[in-house]
Amino acid sequence: MEKNSAASSCEEIVRNQQVILRERVRGSPKEADMEVRDGSAKLKVEDGSSGAMWVKNLYLSCEPKTRHLMDTIRPSSPITGFGVARVVDSANPKFEKGDLVWGITGWEEYSLISPSETFFKIEHTDVPLSYYNGLLGMPGLSAYVGFIELCSPKKGESVYISTAAGAVGQLVGQFAKLLGCYVVGSAGSQEKVDLLKNKFSFDDAFNYKEEPDLDAALKRYFPEGIDIYFENVGGKMLDAVLLNMKSHGRIAACGMTSQYNLDQPEGIHNLVNLVLKQVRMEGFLVSSYYHLYPKFLETVLPHIKQGKIAYVEDIVEGLEKGPAALVGLFSGRNVGKQVIVVSRE
Amino acid sequence: MEKNSAASSCEEIVRNQQVILRERVRGSPKEADMEVRDGSAKLKVEDGSSGAMWVKNLYLSCEPKTRHLMDTIRPSSPITGFGVARVVDSANPKFEKGDLVWGITGWEEYSLISPSETFFKIEHTDVPLSYYNGLLGMPGLSAYVGFIELCSPKKGESVYISTAAGAVGQLVGQFAKLLGCYVVGSAGSQEKVDLLKNKFSFDDAFNYKEEPDLDAALKRYFPEGIDIYFENVGGKMLDAVLLNMKSHGRIAACGMTSQYNLDQPEGIHNLVNLVLKQVRMEGFLVSSYYHLYPKFLETVLPHIKQGKIAYVEDIVEGLEKGPAALVGLFSGRNVGKQVIVVSRE
């Protein structure tokens, strides 16, 4: 009560640069779909906005979900997505001014966070804060849930990961190596392939764009078949994988990025292999697994601190570079987790 | 030892009518792919054929698997498939002369069963023996495994079954009703639809051939979506179902009969819904679940004896009618489980 009664007397009005959605996006996002413009913000939670909070955005995540979220906001609103932020005013009993948090925020300098939005308080600050956009955020939890919880990997099993150099894929591969699996990943450039082999310790990796026959490529890397496929792309890759699954194989479907921007998704022709090979394929949304976040952190933080998990970020400085970074994501321009720095405080 | 030493002195040579595979089948089987001809058999297990047995076939099952098995046998050999038989000579320590058994046998009057073939001894004979081709055989176990074990149904959930009037589908529907689910099935004729509603107590049923828009049909029967889909057909039906699954839905893929005989399977376009709706889709082969057969029998026999499970067979008399029955299966001619009577003893 004290906080709110004081609000009217010391309002702070600040510039609030924003990345605005111009109009509904069709297919892959283009820079012209977005506009960077200056607004302003009064950084006080209004009386009666029970549970809301104002945050100063520090790091924004640029990921396939950002594209999905574009379909859920009204034109002329800011783009939304995961970000790391500092609370500047709070009527939310779970957070107070000064807390570092992460959750879904706006592509702007300051955001008013509604009480219905799930935010996580950042307790461990002895790792780079931007990691909470990736390794220690949704991509990390996605890798953990999809691979560990859904696929129950066992030592010695063969694991294939598409979009392996992406934020989720690179972690799945490293979790798999820590568990003693044989791990091969694919990516869309030689630079990423080198990263997978040299930085992330994959057993092998290949550039799918240079493989005219994906089935043949998979047979080369997995002559005895694939136990676990971590699915990020869908389309022709999934069709080729289905031909190469081992009996009782498992597929965690985290995303099908090759399909999101098509008017008519490609047909998958080899699904009968799910029956013939007794394969389990399970789609998941990380938002259903928030309750596993503490368990995930407990598992992964020691590995990070012992230097057993490598992590690569592709960092652009400045909110105004956000639109180009998002567009680049869909052409595979980024190497590692794409992060936009709004402020280093 | 005694048995074998006696063999040479009392050999029994009998006529053995057989349904022979003429040549490798392309697509759906045609009657011309098969030939009924007379052979002969000496109903004694030869010295040294450790573990083999001769059986007299009584009832043969006609099912999609019969088509698959055609690809695994050499031309000029008899068709193979599940059947109920009586042991007439045995060197298999698990079975003795006179035992009633079921397992994969030949489409012929008498078959020599190799010791590597899995056979089940029939202990309960107070139900029709032909049931061991269906309700109490592989189709029954398939329904149990796919629905109960893989989909973990809960009271009040919405269940959709394609090829619902088939041997497996009719049982899945009845298991679902016993558990308190809402159950809708589809089939390919009005006669089958009536059977589903009147005989098998489905909540509703429709003729998919009369539905120009399967998505619209499913939305009509499942305005709030489908929790569990028991998949028997694949193709366009699966694509429509994917649009109508509820969040955290489950699909047990028992077969994709619409696809087996196509040179190029149809494309499935809506698989991204596995991710968006967090659906688990799992293929299975009943042969991996033989260990559950006793548990299954224990569950289902009381229901049968209490008249709580209805079962419909489409019985043709005589091995020579086998080819037409098998061809009819793929055009949906049969109503209920297709059985061929070889001998009523």
UniProtKB/TrEMBL annotation, chains A, B:
SUPFAM superfamilies associated with the record: GroES-like, NAD(P)-binding Rossmann-fold domains
Residue ranges of domain Enoyl reductase (ER) in the record: 51-340
Keywords on record: Oxidoreductase
InterPro entries in the record: ADH-like_C, ADH_N_2, ER, GroES-like_sf, MDR_fam, NAD(P)-bd_dom_sf
Family annotation (Pfam families): ADH_N_2, ADH_zinc_N
Superkingdom, natural source: Eukaryota
Keyword check for Transport: no
Protein name: 2-alkenal reductase (NADP(+)-dependent)-like
The species this protein was found in: Rhodamnia argentea
